[in-house]
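Below is how a single chain appears once it has passed through the pipeline. First comes the sequence as given, then the structure the pipeline wrote out for it. We keep one example in the README because the format questions we get most often are answered faster by looking than by reading.
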Amino acid sequence: MRTPRRKRLLAAGTAWAVAAAGAVALSFGLAGSASAGEFLVNGGFETNALNPWTCTGSTGSVVTGHARTGSYALAGAASASDTAQCAQTVAVAPNTTYTLSAYVNGAYVYLGVNGGASTWTPSTGGGYQKLSVSFTTTATQTSATVFTHGWYGQGTYYADDVSLDGPGAPASPSASASPSKSASPSPSASASPSGSPSTSASPSSSPSTSSSPTTPPPPGGHALVGYLHASFANGAGYLKMADVPDSWDIIDLAFGEPDSITGGTIHFNRCPATECPGVESDADFKAAIAAKQAKGKKVLLSIGGQNGEVQLTTTAARDNFVNSVSAIIDKWGLDGLDIDFEGHSLSLNTGDTDFKNPTTPVITNLISAVKTLKAKYGAKFQLTMAPETFFVQLGYQYYGSGPWGGQDPRAGAFLPVIYGLRDDLTLLHVQDYNSGSIMGLDNQYHNMGSADFHIAMTDMLLTGFPVAGNTNNVFPALKPSQVAIGMPANSYAGNGYVAPAVVNQALDCLTKGTSCGSYTPRAGKQPNLRGLMTWSINWDNYNGNEFSKNFHSYFG
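Resulting structure:
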């Protein structure tokens, strides 16, 4: 989840796994006057300018004093919020093999081609190291985007002498070409954390039998889920509980936050009048919740968000969590809990490699705490989760620190929680926004901001997938009635916003098997897909309720 004041761009704020960091795509121009066989312009940066390279934000620059050869080199200022991606799109010939190489200096520097192979250096190595990767174009391919990038929080890296070699110069080179804004290449499974090639994970299973179009809707019907800014204000404006439109089926109160990161005690403070002019009284807030519930709506406490880092490292913290969350649920008469753990809340200890049998305390204590809450409140207790793609779908390629160590231990860390609570889970709505590129079951990278991304990410949940490519350790498919798609309500709410027509295209593909584009769901059409989630109700209200109106126009 995200708000301009309280929420960072989550893909930026969450460090991608070492083997899955967002790329600093070097935006290379077409070969132009390059000699035969060389497809890049300014690969040595000796023009003392980035052109035709294009880097994310203002992260890229040309510097002196760090060149491998000549006088200049590229400096990519990777930070906690940007991997310093730079990308160049070049003209290529179909059915042709090319070799991309570069000299890089820094920790976790990546080199690769968008939608294809990549490689990376896991350590500084004391100076420049050469990276090289080959790829073959498809029968109809006429362009390719290559990239290099660092890793979140690892600081500035340097690249020099970048080269793309092929069997001759492009047939129709141009002076330069800018990459698509949607391009966000990430490394592929062709490089393992040890630096040696590994076999890409294969799709987990073949398509299942398509559901009959006459299959009844999921239990409770299709659901529209939204987050209500209940404890803070931002540019979207404060919205009273009584003024939340009845179009919302599940209302998540954002946010419950911890007194301390490891203490386990959660508090829920309503937005003060000094920050939210016109905020209703506690009595009116509680009465409005009861009125929503009388209409069949569910109101949950969402715990986490950007500032709500929760690490249940001890059984004492676990018990504090249960007791404090119970008190909040009882005070306001809520229906259950939404887990929106982000940042460093969940990570896996080294050696904890089986998502079905986790041993890391922050994982096992969370599962235990939620089971205790479920047992206390019984069947009426609603449990939803809103993890980022980094913590779920990325697990197809990378899980925890990996067999060699060195990966981000948070990669796929939500998988054991989802699996351990699968029988108690009401709804999983992964945040399909503020995300880096993620490999789908077709072993291709998919970028947010398109129907393709929502289709591929959702299909992974409906089909299941081998974790870290291990076909003997498959994360099982969830029921369609347990899955909703998380999207931003508008462009202010988060990166990856898509217009209603694109939302409907994704729904058509997933529920009807039509308009699927280049990705065909392995799970077949699933009319019982539960629905949509958005950040947030406030942002939708700000935007004229476009998201909620479109949902009900589609589902009725």
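The chain has nine helices and 23 strands.

See the next section for the split statistics.
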